[in-house]
Amino acid sequence: MASVLAFDIETIPDVAGLRLLRGADPALSDGDVYAAEIADRAARNKSDFMPLHLQRVLVISCVFRAGRSLQVRSFVDLERNGKSEEAAIIQEFFSKVDERRPQLVSWNGGGFDLPVLQQRGLRHGVVAGRYWDMGDDDREYRYNNYISRYHLRHIDLMDLLAMYQSRANAPLDAMAKLCGFPGKLGMDGSQVYGAYLDGRRDEIRRYCETDAMNTYLLWCRFEKMRGRLDQAGYEREIALARDTVAGLGESHWGEYLDAWPAEPEPPRAHLRDMEASSDPESSRDREPPPDRDSPMDSESPAERDSPAASAPDVAEPIIAVREVTTTVVETTEVYIDSSSIRE
Q1: Which one, 4, 85, 129, 234, has least CB within 10 Å?
Q2: 8 Å CB contact between 74 and 208
Q3: What is the third-level CATH fold of 4-258?
Q4: Strands across the sheet with 154-156, in order?
Q5: In the chain, where are the structural domains located?
Q6: What is the per-residue pLDDT across 243-256, written as a single tens digit (0 to 9) for each?
């Protein structure tokens, strides 16, 4: 399997950005600035979900498959010394993409994760040359790059499975559980900011990692669906994911394994035909199949020993018919005398 990077991000409102754009009083606390913004949005019949350019990236979690290994890694803004490290974690993510050039896989990554990373990366001066290459440096990227919606170097599974129709989008949690995977554990996206304010940053990181793993497992199922993994290959990938999760040693991965049932039996093609062939009553009336190495219309021993059978074959006459089609083209000449044409 080529290198694959399934990823997910968790964000919080960018209160510093709100201060700048709203011209907030410096004396106001972050909580007051945010509350004023929420009240203003409510007055305009808008949700409390901030626009993407005001989503500050807190965690980027990745499940990376390359060679014989499967790794889980997270880039977390630890705010050391009271200063945001958002720029550093976004740069680290794009640097890994530029270095490895993996197949990117996401769930709603085209609608949320990547636009956020791009807009926030622009704010911080992040460099991502290979990621943004659309054929100027490498001709291959003209026809398959990370940016174009219908190219496959980045696959937004939610968007693709919905045939690019938003009304057909499925939630990650529901789709993962329907496919027999654990789905979301611990919290959902609406609870992230509250967890951040409570100092539960590591809990957010754990939640983000399990979402990235759900996305990777759905990718494996999708690869099987489109024929790039056969059943044996798919089972190997799932076994590798289970072994990797079991070896990570953190409590949330233990909960993840507990919520992960055994893989169901794969669907069998032509099941009814197989059942019928095993029924002695149904097979009694059927002619035995012809020998694979014999002609379809086999003959009896008496026929084989007869003079007619040993006589050489006489080629039957072949009648060739040639069909001739004649096309008649009529030409009509039209002469228009107009001063506007002559001028």
Answers
A1: 129
A2: yes
A3: Nucleotidyltransferase; domain 5 (3.30.420)
A4: 69-76, 55-66, 4-13, 103-106, 154-156
A5: 4-258
A6: 999 999 999 999 99
